[in-house]
Design goal:
The protein is globular and about 70 Å long. By secondary structure, it is α/β, with parallel strands linked by helices. Strand 1, helix 2 and strand 2 form a beta-alpha-beta unit. It has a single domain, classed as Glycoside hydrolase/deacetylase (TIM Barrel, Alpha-Beta Barrel), CATH 3.20.20.370. Bound molecules: zinc ion (ZN). The site of zinc ion (ZN) has 6 residues, from loops. Zinc ion (ZN) binds next to loops.
Length: about 240
């Protein structure tokens, strides 16, 4: 084999393994059920909030949820939970699920298997330390799984969870009214609804908070009951 041909073979192999590690793993998650996108039918739906906790925004979300007697799921960033443990603890104490969203909100498509393991395990430890609860669910930032993350989740008995409905897109930035209407319209039984109490656009938490009462009322008007993921997916949350 000539040197250029060997180089191109090696390049192709590297590209293919890279594709398998990132887009291939994502496709496996989407097509073969490697990650949950909807719950069992019935009348259950799940509100999920990513990227927190935030010292000011998150308590406002907890107030609205308490006023409406709704339990939800918060995918926490480990270092944010470590920075405001009182808020993280308040989430768990209010009966919401606390779940793993990596330690530093990193794109799993850009990191090694070793770093992937560190990101997930450190977040497990940070969240357990702050809340007393060891998460049972994992959501990769931006929904991007890599192949290594499946193995870590299996070892940790973490269920990877994506979503079927989003409050806003990477570009789409709806008003609170529009967000509420679209979330309610798109939600079917078993829907897993992805919202943010931190992160996103600078005004995302404020718009989601403003939309939240109408989302809850609209879901209930359609006879859909918001429940935390442990109820929607019938999976227990283990104490640390
Ligand atoms: Zn996120």
């Amino acid at each position: 084999m000539t040197r250029p041909r060997r180089l191109s073979w090696l390049t192709s192999a590297a590209v293919l393994s890279g594709v398998g590690y990132t887009i291939g793993a994502q496709a496996a998650a989407a097509w073969f059920g490697g990650a949950v996108k909807t719950a069992e039918g019935g009348d259950r739906v799940s509100l999920t909030f990513d990227d927190g906790p935030h010292p000011e925004h998150t308590p406002r979300f907890l107030d609205v949820l308490a006023r409406h007697d709704v339990r939800a799921t918060f995918f926490l960033v480990g270092r944010h939970a470590a920075a405001c443990p009182d808020v993280a603890r308040a989430i768990a104490d209010a009966g919401h699920d606390v779940a793993n969203h990596t330690e530093s909100h990193v794109n799993l498509w850009t990191i090694s298997p070793r770093r992937t393991r560190e990101e997930i395990l450190r977040a497990q430890a940070s969240i357990a330390r702050a809340t007393g609860v060891r998460p049972a669910f994992f959501r990769p930032p931006w929904g991007k799984m890599n192949a290594a993350a499946f193995g870590v989740c299996a070892d940790e008995r973490l269920t990877p969870v994506l979503w079927s409905v989003r409050g806003e897109g990477f570009v789409w930035r709806p008003s609170a009214e529009c967000m509420a209407a679209e979330v309610v319209r798109r939600s079917a039984p078993g829907a897993i609804i992805c919202l943010h109490d931190r992160g996103g656009f600078p005004d995302t938490p404020a718009r989601v908070l403003a939309a939240l009462p109408a989302i809850i009322d609209g879901l209930r008007a359609r006879r859909l009951s918001p429940v935390p993921l442990r109820e929607a997916l019938m999976k227990g949350v283990r104490l640390a």
